[in-house]
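Milestone M4 deliverable, item 7.
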Amino acid sequence: GQLFVLIGPGGAGKNAIMHIALEQVDNLRQLATATTRPRRDGEVEGQHHLFVSLETFQDMLQNGQLLEHEEVTPGRFYGIPRASVEDNLNAGRNLIADIDVNGARVLRSTYPDDATLIFITVPGQTADDMLNVLRQRMTERNSEGPQVIQQRLDRARDVELPFLTQADYVIVNDDITQAVADLIEIITRHTSPVEEAG
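Output delivered:
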């Protein structure tokens, strides 16, 4: 199996693109990361995440079951369970995940032959242009206050946008239909059987 890792700033549309691709591509499933946050409406245990208590998460950490973890907001932890990745890849199943920059680095170094890093961003000639588009999108979405939006923009400027040059592919989400088509083309390129020369 192959592992497709979507990285990019908050507000770029990674989740939306990933979920449409999951509906359209056979033999592609979401990598279920472990999290201590509560389950949201519509989320399925084991499909979207492994929803665990803080105690369980700490046990997983101490037992070496997590490839990587991060406290994203105070008291809310996310981690990549080693078994979730290896069991699927060994069974020939392709995985897709929306992972932060640190997780992407760990997956690339742990599975160099199996991980493809795809950076999802917004239109813009410069980082400032992109940050303005992100601010506009997050403000229009109206799901977070100004302080959270600023934190996400600071993270985009300092952590995520600089990682763009390390990704295997960059998709500019100016039009979601085109962005999904670009993603599916990349997945197909990496999962189609290579024809043997005669």
